[in-house]
Amino acid sequence: MSVPAELYYTPEHEWVAINGATASVGITDHAQRALGDVVFVSVPEAGSRVTAGEPCGEVESTKSVSDIYSPVDGEVAEVNAEIDDDPGLVNSDPYGAGWLFKITLDDTDTDVPPGLLTAAEYAALTKEEDDEDGEDDEDDDDEP
Amino acid sequence: MHEQLGATLTDFADWLMPLRYGSETAEHTAVRTAAGLFDLSHMGELAVTGNGAAEALDYALVGELSTLAPGRARYTMICAADGGVLDDLIVYRLAGDDYLVVANAANTATVREALRERTAGRKATVTDKTADYALIAVQGPHAATILAPLTSAQLTELKYYASYPAKVAGVDVLLARTGYTGEDGFEIFAPGASAEHLWTELTRAGAPHGLVPAGLAARDTLRLEAGMPLYGNELGTDVTPFDAGLGRVVKLGKQADFVGREALAARAAAAPERQLVGLVLGSRRVPRHGYDVLWHGQPAGQVTSGAPSPTLRVPIAMAYLRPDVVAAAGQEDDGLAVDVRGRPEPAKLVELPFYRRPA
């Protein structure tokens, strides 16, 4: 599982790349693996307000659906139009071509927005989850 | 073995089973266009033997298994006295007095105990063989081509829902032409100790024909497209076979009494309370198990299974609907929707199955 060191993370498995006043957001490699094949992503519209910790979109995969939580406060500056045509980019390149949207940060005074995890912290968190859940955390108990 | 292949495993009815090996969509597509290899060893195998076995099963199950020819298999159900479904089953008649009942993993203990209770006092013995058998399925249009060089069995003579003892890759197995994917294919019941050998040989023989290992996630979307019910979703103790559109498995005409007869006869004569239907959604948001189906904004039923269909490339669902709504929705283009997490997504009624393999 890949957890790039230069990114920040949320406990809900989003990643954030901070570049000046702009934060790019996507879902982590761990998240895309747990979800399975992504078939549809809904993201907030450009220009809309997002609040850290609040749901602002959803990721549909073959087996489940998950909320996307905004990692920061701000205004959506741009969304990745490629994802609409090819949601599989979230699986094949979660930290690159599979980015979801960019946010113009409200607060650019602090280096790192509050509540985000470092790569090491996120890696530790996902390891704990794996240890708790066994091999996988999917809900499949009504399969034949 | 599966972990060596990079499988994501899932804990299912106390079995650690492969959910997917790589992309479940790719696995699904391989089964539709080439072939997939499934480990189904979690399924329950119950042997019912003895010269009263046929009579005992006629009493225990809703089908008439005494009329099943040796070497053939039948889809049937075991119901409670009130007509509720305890499990759906495939029953193989291996020989006159020798039946193999295949149950869903989560229901094996229930079925075993019900069979023991219902066969008590008859000349029949119920033996749980689940731990002895591995079950490997090869499913897809290339299944017969892949299997042929590994067996002396004449596959062209093995009809759908038939089985016979055969040697596959040197192993004595029960070879059956059954499946749960909507494709042609085979299910191989083999001694547990030979499972890895069989898996390896089938993988080798299948590679040039596009065979890939496939997990439970692909199996679920394959059976959904094929309109096949899943216990726990479309079937349960609160559902009769008639609700699920499977009343044909209930042989009310058989001479023998059977558990559930009275309730099921009443149910067959009464107007249905609900009906299992197929839905296709116009949006890309996916209906899931338990979501409400709306008719002009009012709840009219519930989704039992839903997924983005890899073959049709739209979200599909099976759902129980009120019969009056089914009739009305057949007349009117608009009005039906699924409540997908608080937002109604328009849906259309379609005939089941969603997918039928090319003839």
What average pLDDT do the residues of chain B reach? 96
The helix/strand series of chain B, from N terminus to C terminus, equals EEHEEHEEEHEEHEEEHEHHEEEEHEE
CATH class of chain A reads: Mainly Beta
* Strand content bin of chain B: 25-35%
Q: What is the tally of helical segments of chain B?
A: 8
**CATH architecture descriptor of the largest domain in chain B:** 2-Layer Sandwich
What's the name of the CATH homologous superfamily of the largest domain in chain B? Probable tRNA modification gtpase trme, domain 1
Could you explain the architecture of this structure?
The complex is a heterodimer of chains A (144) and B (359). Chain A has 144 residues and is an alpha+beta fold. Helices cover 21% and strands 31% of the residues of chain A. Chain A has helices at residues 29-35, 82-85, 89-92, 119-133; strands at 8-9, 14-19, 22-27, 38-42, 49-50, 55-61, 65-69, 74-79, 101-105. Chain A has a 6-stranded antiparallel β-sheet with strand order 1-2-3-9-8-5. Chain A has a 3-stranded antiparallel β-sheet with strand order 4-6-7. Chain B is an alpha+beta fold. A 6-stranded mixed β-sheet of chain B has the order 10-11-12-9-3-13, with helices on both faces. Chain B has a 6-stranded antiparallel β-barrel with strand order 14-17-16-15-18-19. In chain B, strands 5-6-7-4-8 form a 5-stranded antiparallel β-sheet, with helices on one face. Classes of the chains: A alpha+beta (144), B alpha+beta (359). Chain A binds chain B through residues 33, 36-37, 39-40, 42, 58, 60, 62-65, 91, 134-136, 138, 140-144, and chain B through 8-13, 16, 19-20, 23-25, 43, 104-106, 180, 216-217, 219-221, 223, 230-233, 284-286, 288-289, 307-308, 310, 341.
